[in-house]
Amino acid sequence: MKKTVFLVIIVALVPSPLIAGGGQEEMDDDTFRVAGIFQTAIEEPWDGVIHQACLRAVDELGIEYEFTEQIAAADFEKVVREYAERGFDLIVGDAFLAGEEPSRRVAKDYPEVAFAFGSEFGPAEPNYSVFDNWIHEPSYLSGIIAGHLTESNVLGVVAAIPINEVNRLVNAFKAGALSVNPDVQTKIAYIGGWFDPPKAKEAAQAQIEAGADLIFAERFGVFEAAKENGVLAFGNMSDQNELAPDVVITGPVWDMYPTIEYLVTTVRAGLIPSQDLKDWSMMAKGGASLAPFHEFEDTLPSDVIAQVRDLEAQILAGTFRVPIIEEEPTSD
Fold first, then answer.
1. How far apart are CA 258 and CA 197, in angstroms?
2. Does residue 129 sit in the same domain as residue 141?
3. Residue 128: beta bridge partners?
4. Alpha carbon 294 to its chain's center
5. pLDDT in tens, 60-92
6. What is the C-alpha to C-alpha distance for residues 224 and 329, in angstroms, rounded to an integer?
7. Nearest CA to 86 among 14, 166, 193, 147?
8. Rounded CA gap, 122 and 118, in Å?
């Protein structure tokens, strides 16, 4: 990849946006500009995945990219409107909870701008598309591994908030484990927010004390407790093995690049979509995958790896469908 130079600028109402691929003074009428708008720090994996996809688009699609992170609820509409007013071609971000209504209001006022936000609701004509992390398929595969490996028959899950996108992952993980081990019990804890590592660690510690010997870290912060207690874990959203190589077996990975590539290509062609972009976040289109096993490739039972790879191939071929269950899961 070519080296990208970043320039930090200060804009009223926008905490500290960053331009990837050049500064404002270099922009011209032919420049395709993408804005990323995030309620949390991009260190948080969900928003971080979107951010990384946009950075990749700078190199591979030749776009200009600018983002703002850690936006307070009271400022969200102002920040979205700022980017729309400045004439960005595509505005993406997370609209769950506080950002939902503000982002939709702004989109109505700027029909010539394409908007695509993470949302559990539907798209809106003429210019508001929605996406989500449809990574329940690799979550199910992670559950299969957990169901085989557990010795206590107690699994833990530390999750954010019981909304559809979180529930899908938790239910899929639980279903995968039960498919190979009907004796498994799953303990589920919600931290009540998107990014609170200390609270996630505390929840993981409580689950370990309750007998959990493997934990699905749907949220950031679990690995420290796992390391301290000699417990294995599954990451989420990105390949998180490097954060705790002795702890993280694998986990569902979300790749937003297929979605960003589709949006940029479509808008560049003169079309402004208003659609549910679900398919681009699933395994068949490269938007989801199971993270590499890294050193666990040599320690996991070979029959377990073979079963996972076989089912992975079936999912990609469309001959096996992981159930989509969005009801709030409960602890066993």
1. 29
2. no
3. 115, 124
4. 21
5. 999 999 999 999 999 999 999 999 999 999 999
6. 25
7. 14
8. 10
Nearest to 157 by CA among 145, 166, 148: 166
pLDDT of residue 27 exceeding 50, the answer is: no
Q: Report the chain's mean pLDDT, rounded to a whole number.
A: 90
Residue range(s) defining the domain that contains residue 154? 136-236+301-317
Q: What is the domain-level CATH number for residue 70?
A: 3.40.50.2300
In a domain, 290, yes or no: no
For the chain, what is the domain count?
2
Q: Amino acid identity, residue 331? A: S
Q: Are residues 313 and 262 in the same domain?
A: no
At what angle are helices 45-61 and 257-268 packed, to 10 degrees? 50
**Interhelix angle 100-109/76-85, nearest 10 degrees:** 30
Q: How many CA atoms lie within 13 A of 215 on its CB side?
A: 35
Amino acid 26 reads E
Q: Which run of H or of E encompasses 143?
A: helix 136-149
3-state class percentages of the chain: helix first, strand second, coil last, to nearest 5: 40, 20, 40
Q: What angle do CA 82, 104, 63 make, to 5 degrees?
A: 50
Both tokens assigned to 93:
């971000």
Both structure tokens of 215 = 């934990």
325: in domain: no
Q: Is 148 exposed, middle or buried (0-12, 13-18, 19+ CB in 10 A)?
A: middle
Residue 92 Cα to chain centre, angstroms? 14
Residue 250 lies in a domain: no
For the chain, count helices (H), then strands (E). Answer: 9, 13
- Both 64 and 172 in a single domain? no
Residue 236, phi then psi, degrees to nearest 5: -155, 145
């969200």: which residue's tokens? 76
Helix (H, G, I), strand (E, B) or coil at 244: coil
Q: Report percent pLDDT > 90 for the chain.
A: 80
Reported as type and span, the H/E element at residue 76 is helix 76-85
